[in-house]
Amino acid sequence: MLVDSHCHLNFSELAENIQSVRQLMADEDIGHALCVSVTLDKFPEVLTLAEQYDNFYASVGVHPDYEDIEEPTVETLVELAKHPKVVAIGETGLDYFRLTGDLEWQRDRFRTHIRAAILAGKPLIIHTRNAVDDTLRIMREEGAEKVGGVLHCFTESLEMAQAAIEMGFYISFSGIVTFKNAKDLKEVAKQIPLERILVETDSPYLAPVPFRGKTNQPAYVKYVAQEVADLRGVSLDTIADATTANFFTLFKHAKLGAEAVCS
Ligand SMILES: [Zn+2]
Ligand SMILES: [Zn+2]
Prior knowledge:
Elements: E1 2-7, H1 12-15, H2 18-27, E2 30-35, H3 43-52, E3 56-60, H4 74-80, E4 86-95, H5 104-120, E5 124-129, H6 132-141, E6 149-151, H7 158-166, E7 169-173, H8 183-191, E8 197-199, H9 221-232, H10 236-250, H11 252-262
The chain binds zinc ion (ZN) (2 copies).
């Protein structure tokens, strides 16, 4: 069984077809999915999915690419994170690729999320692009290692992965790892410890090969896991077992929920 550790099932491409998305997950033995919040405005849609389906979980947070939206406060995030199906804070982080100029607001927003995660006792989902030094610096300054979390849709260097792992973080690979030109990233997937790896789709974006350019969905996480397995010279089952165990170790509130469902 595999888990999609990061997807956006409330986005219309997927929300409108949720039954077929769930059917394909079942057919491919994708047991769980974490639905990740990008704005406070859409958080209720994300939470509804997690409330409606036992094997879906939610996060609460505001993505660094959204500029003119309601800015979250620590108090708001902590309050919303009290819901038992909210298992993480994010996605949050820094993105100097999509946005340029004075991004002090992005760094402030990132700090807000780390403070909320520590108070809520729930791990962080961090999005980081072209912002290695500031991401690691702010994680250190704010004590992110107290809650840990994941660097999702990882595209940076082995050095950055190792620095995050030292702070107790996990590294999540998306469909990008299946792309032919992602040579450095494939090397990261080969080298980091298995007990620190997660897999995700970030659907509806970033469909893996052989679906590149199409609408992505949680079932396709299998292709990400297969690529990681091939790179490391191990079986798909090995990667499935490890990444599923890693998911429930990191997102321990999901485990509590899953045990409640199973018992
Ligand atoms: Zn992201
Ligand atoms: Zn995302």
